[in-house]
Amino acid sequence: QVQLVESGGGLVQPGGSLRLSCAASGSIFSIRTMNWYRQAPGKQRSLVAAITSDGRASYSDSVKGRFTISRDNFKNAVYLQMNSLKPEDTAVYYCSAVIEATMGGPRHYWGQGTQVTVSS
Questions:
Q1: Which is nearest to 89 in space by CA: 52, 49, 34?
Q2: 62-71 contact pairs (CB < 8 A, 24+)
Q3: What share of residues in the chain are helix, strand, coil (percent, to 5)?
Q4: Nearest to 104 by CA among 35, 36, 24, 26
Q5: Model confidence over 5-30: pLDDT tens digits?
Q6: pLDDT tens for residues 85-116?
Q7: Taking a C-beta distance cutoff of 8 angstroms, is the pair 62, 82 a contact?
Q8: CA 35, CA 4: separation in Å to the nearest integer?
Q9: DSSP reduced 3-state for 45
Q10: To which H or E segment does residue 31 belong?
Q11: Which of 67, 70, 88, 117 meets the CB 3.0–4.6 Å disulfide criterion with 63?
C-alpha cells in the first residue's frame, strides 16, 4: 500500500512564509510526477505546482515567482516553499504523485491535505 502524508501547514500573516512537505511511503518502485494542488472553500481544486522525476518544475500563474516546488528522490518527498503569502492563498493543500508500486502499474495517489490559512 502506498501513502502520501503532508505536513507544514498552519496560520501565517500576509507576507509570511511556509514550507509544506509531503512524504511517500509503502511498496514504491518509482515515483513519476509529483504535484501540489489546493482547494479553497467553495472553489474548485486547482494545480499549484508540479515537478517531474528529473526536476522540471511548472507553476500556476497565481503563484509563479512566490512558490517553489522541489523534490528529494532519495527520500520520496516533495516540498513547496511558499513566500509572500496572500490571503487568497488560503486553502487546503494536497500532495499528489504518480507512483509505480512494486507490484503494479503507475497510478495517481493523493494525500489527505494540510490547511494553510493566511490572515492578519
A1: 49
A2: 62/88, 63/89, 69/34, 69/36, 71/34
A3: 0, 60, 40
A4: 26
A5: 999 999 999 999 999 999 999 999 99
A6: 999 999 999 999 999 988 888 999 999 999 99
A7: no
A8: 11
A9: coil
A10: strand 28-39
A11: 67
Residue 104 gets which letter from DSSP? S
CA distances to 36, 52, 55, 105 from 76, rounded to whole Å, are 15, 13, 13, 17
Torsion of CA 8, 57, 100, 4, to 10 degrees: 10
Contacts for 59 with CB less than 8 Å, ≥ 6 apart: 48, 49, 67, 69
10 Å Cβ neighbour count for 6? Answer: 22
Residue type, 80: L
Q: What is the DSSP string of 58-86?
A: EE-TTTTTTEEEEEETTTTEEEEEE-S--
Place of cell 504535484: 35
Which residue type sits at 79? Y
Q: What percent of the chain has pLDDT over 90?
A: 94
